[in-house]
Specification:
There is one protein chain. Helix content is 32%, strand content 10%. The chain is an alpha+beta fold. The model has no long low-confidence stretch (mean pLDDT 90). It has helices at residues 48-57, 60-66, 70-75, 77-86, and strands at residues 26-30, 43-47. This is HNH endonuclease. Residues 1-38 are annotated as: Disordered. Keywords: Endonuclease, Hydrolase, Nuclease.
């Protein structure tokens, strides 16, 4: 009798540490924005809500200059507050990010 392959664990969002189950809104974040030289550079898979919050908080210039690592993003005061809030939500939680998106 052949055993079924175990179902792999879903990837985790490196920003909030919650799993990203199949079907959850998600997107890839360029650690250095494409418009600031990051095209083809490293990316991370995030919940869409986490990705939206990054871009609502920081400009492309700030991302390229000071926030090009997950550790730096997690240390930003507004993002740290967001992470503490969203970490209490279910892994598939999504809502609109309030406010306008920051300028590129």
């Amino acid at each position: 009798m052949r055993h079924a392959d175990p179902i792999p664990d879903p990837p985790s969002c490196p920003l909030c540490d919650r799993p990203i189950p199949p079907g959850t809104k998600q997107s890839r974040h360029h650690l250095v924005p494409k418009l600031r030289g990051g095209k083809g550079g490293p990316t991370v898979l995030l919940h869409q809500i986490c990705h939206n919050e990054i871009h609502a908080t920081l400009t492309e210039a700030e991302l390229a200059r000071d926030y090009s690592t997950v550790a730096a993003l997690r240390a930003h005061p507004r993002l740290a507050k967001f992470i503490a809030w969203v970490a209490r939500r279910p892994p598939d939680f999504h809502s609109r990010t309030p406010g306008a998106r920051r300028k590129r």
